[in-house]
Design goal:
This protein is α+β, with helices and mostly antiparallel strands and 205 residues long. The chain has helices spanning 11-19, 23-32, 92-100, 172-177, 179-185, and strands spanning 5-7, 44-46, 51-58, 61-69, 71-72, 79-80, 82-84, 102-107, 109-113, 119-124, 130-139, 142-151, 162-164, 166-167, 193-197. The two termini are 32 Å apart. The protein is 20% helix and 38% strand.
Amino acid sequence: MCGRYWTEADLEEKIKKVIGVPIDTLDMRRKRREQPAAVNIALGDIVPSCPALIVEKGDEGLILTQACWGYPSHKGTGLVINARAESVFEKKMFQRGIRRRRIAVPASGFYEWNKNGEKNTFRREDGKALYMAGIADLFDEEVRFVILTTAANDSVNRVHDRMPLILEESQVRDWIFRESAAERILKQVPIRLKRQAEQLQLSLF
């Protein structure tokens, strides 16, 4: 699963290479169309219910914007923050998003905790931005998103049996624009990631 991730200061420059035009230029276009003000790169930990950066389809290609992490649950309490890649087309809650509003969620890396409560960080071994596959939808005129998860690969499964579905930079555009490509990507095994485990700090009091 994915319940928390983080962004670092250099993420903006890495995103620009994938989007294909400077983010400042995109922000100016938004202002000319009287759309919401330019987004800011939120640094640090990103947690459910908070606004976060997403890459999605725009009028002239890919754009960077913001959405709130988590769909409201049908029961009216809590949030649904992940969707399983294996069944996303089958679940009514996710059908509109997977068919009409596929997104990429940029991050520097994500966290996962094992059964002993020990925190592990995961990032790409090559230092590039990590793009997690996601979908978005509109709830009460607010855009919200979930992150897709898949079976953990051998770099994650020692900590957890699920992990985010990771997109390569070259797959971001196909994932967002082409449903046939998206169906193939849903079945892929994510790349190996670099793992760092933090020592569990035990209080003496």
